[in-house]
């Protein structure tokens, strides 16, 4: 543990400051495919009974019309966040009829690419922009990759923590710049240590054989319909999952917020030859928003993002440049198919301690060699993280995964203890102990348990996943929402449909002009 971390912990553990860590904010976005009664991709439209995917604050779609996304509000207590998420699941299941939510991250057996439905958001210009953006994703990466689901964990430290640390460290930047600098430092440390999350929470060591569409691969055959790697933790996060040749050279620099936003701004305004050859329109129909490396900022596939709540009509880069970083979005978490919501409170409490460790630990700039080492460690763990004696790279030297993991857990344990001291109880320390057990016994990891279940029950990936989906459906349907909770959701559905109708009725101007203005909003930042 660094001296800087020790000083920061000592400051936050003082009686006058101890209450601050009860004010961290947590939010979860959970993606999940809808499947039919046979465990096949549901080709039905997004259920109108769930509201407007364009305007409902908690229930929307991601890439596909079949890919639901549930979004919780930000809450200071992760237990409240998960309670919110559970209510959304229960409401959704009350409207799904004979459909189910697919239990893991890797998709169900998929139909032909052209059959997978792209999400639609109505006839407003913003709704059409969201649709054309997704058409562009299909053109660039194929629809199959876009059907992978995950959990995004949003986390912020209390705003009052930053001036406290800034004064203690005699930092003379503006408060906004200091806060942004500390969040970017958090992200550098996340790059260093996120391999640990993949070992502990990776839950996608196998997939349906049809997912690869006949592409060459180095996976092994578990059965006629299932491919896997024996020591993999998260094939979702490997080069078999989210991948992009155009983005291969785009690794934003995390030295400071300005270099990060500059790299993304450049990517959304620089043409990429293969996309330029395809063009934005074909036979008069839009097929991508532009021909640049990224159509919009969110197209960049990263394990973690600096974020700021945007104003209406504002782009993410604009918000970050104008007002700095407000929170981080952790994007590398697999859905655990053994858990009804894909994540549980024990996992959330450890992730809190892990992200706080990344925020408060010393975080020097990443050299080119260390950057490559971070990527190597992450990709090695997602493909062979449970391999006995696995060696990672630290400071140019080899170190055993188990040894390094235990060292990190020792340091993260200091944050777990501080969180318990702040919140009362011992739940964070208990959550840490559960992760220590996984390091000591690899069979306790979700990825090992998935493979064990497949082999013990002689099930294909699809059979196991659908069985879990059915079990989760029974869990949610066994305890319906209260009349009051149900009424609140029904009102939010009604309001979202009214909001979409109003947006469509009130807009002015044609779609081509709207897209041009959207593109210009980024080019205007190039000063």
From TrEMBL:
Residues 10-380 form the Glutamate--cysteine ligase domain. One of its GO terms (molecular function) is metal ion binding. It is an enzyme of class 6 (ligase). Pfam families: Glu_cys_ligase. Its EC number is 6.3.2.2. Keywords: ATP-binding, Glutathione biosynthesis, Ligase, Nucleotide-binding. One of its GO terms (cellular component) is cytosol. This is Glutamate--cysteine ligase. It comes from Pseudomonas turukhanskensis. One of its GO terms (biological process) is glutathione biosynthetic process. Pathway: Sulfur metabolism; glutathione biosynthesis; glutathione from L-cysteine and L-glutamate: step 1/2. The gene is gshA. It comes from the Bacteria. It catalyses: L-cysteine + L-glutamate + ATP = gamma-L-glutamyl-L-cysteine + ADP + phosphate + H(+). InterPro entries: Gln_synth/guanido_kin_cat_dom, Glu_cys_ligase, Glut_cys_ligase. Coiled coil: none annotated. Belongs to the glutamate--cysteine ligase type 1 family. Type 1 subfamily. The keyword Nucleotide-binding applies.
């Amino acid at each position: 543990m660094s001296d800087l971390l020790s000083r920061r912990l000592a400051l936050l553990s003082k009686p006058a400051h101890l209450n601050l860590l009860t004010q961290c904010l947590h939010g979860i976005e959970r993606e999940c495919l809808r499947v039919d009664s046979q465990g096949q991709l549901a080709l039905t439209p997004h259920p109108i009974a769930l509201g407007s995917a364009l305007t409902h604050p908690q229930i929307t779609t991601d890439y596909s019309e079949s890919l639901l996304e549930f979004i919780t509000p930000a809450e200071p207590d992760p237990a409240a966040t998960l309670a919110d998420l559970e209510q959304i699941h229960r409401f959704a299941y009350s409207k799904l009829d004979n459909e189910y939510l697919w239990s893991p991250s890797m998709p169900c057996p998929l139909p032909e690419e052209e059959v997978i439905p792209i999400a639609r958001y109505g006839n407003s210009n913003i709704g059409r922009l969201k649709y054309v953006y997704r058409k562009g994703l299909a053109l660039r990466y194929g629809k199959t990759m876009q059907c992978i689901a995950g959990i995004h964990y949003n986390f912020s430290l209390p705003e009052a923590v930053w001036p406290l640390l800034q004064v203690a460290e005699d930092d003379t930047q503006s408060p906004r710049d200091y806060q942004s600098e500390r969040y970017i430092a958090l992200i550098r440390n996340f790059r260093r240590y996120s391999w640990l999350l993949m070992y502990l929470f990776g839950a996608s060591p196998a997939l349906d054989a049809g997912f690869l569409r006949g592409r060459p691969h180095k996976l092994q055959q578990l059965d006629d319909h299932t491919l896997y790697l024996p020591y993999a933790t998260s094939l979702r996060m490997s080069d078999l999952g989210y991948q992009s040749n155009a983005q291969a050279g785009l690794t934003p620099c995390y030295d400071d917020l300005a270099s990060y936003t500059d790299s993304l701004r450049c990517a959304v305004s620089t043409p990429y030859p293969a996309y330029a050859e395809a063009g934005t329109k074909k036979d008069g129909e839009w097929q991508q928003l532009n021909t640049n490396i990224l159509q919009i900022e969110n197209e960049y596939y990263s394990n973690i993002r600096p974020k700021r709540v945007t104003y209406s009509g504002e782009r993410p880069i604009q918000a970050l440049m104008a007002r700095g970083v407000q929170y981080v979005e952790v994007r590398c978490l697999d859905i655990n198919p053994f858990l009804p919501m894909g994540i549980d409170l024990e996992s959330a409490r450890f992730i809190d301690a892990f992200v706080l460790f990344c925020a408060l630990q010393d975080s020097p700039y990443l050299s080119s060699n260390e950057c490559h080492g971070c990527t190597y460690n992450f990709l090695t763990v997602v493909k062979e993280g449970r391999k006995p004696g696995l060696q990672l790279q630290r400071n140019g030297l080899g170190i055993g995964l188990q040894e390094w993991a235990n060292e990190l857990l020792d340091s993260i344990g200091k944050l777990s203890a501080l969180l318990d001291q702040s919140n009362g109880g011992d739940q964070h320390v208990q959550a840490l102990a559960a992760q220590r057990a996984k390091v000591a016994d690899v069979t306790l990891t979700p990825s090992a348990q998935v493979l064990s279940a497949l082999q013990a029950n002689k099930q294909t990936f699809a059979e196991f996943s659908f069985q879990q989906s059915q079990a989760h459906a029974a869990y949610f349907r066994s305890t319906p929402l209260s009349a009051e909770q149900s009424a609140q959701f029904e009102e939010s559905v009604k309001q979202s449909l009214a909001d979409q109708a109003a947006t469509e009725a009130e807009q002015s101007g044609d779609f081509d002009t709207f897209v041009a203005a959207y593109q210009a909003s980024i080019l205007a930042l190039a000063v």
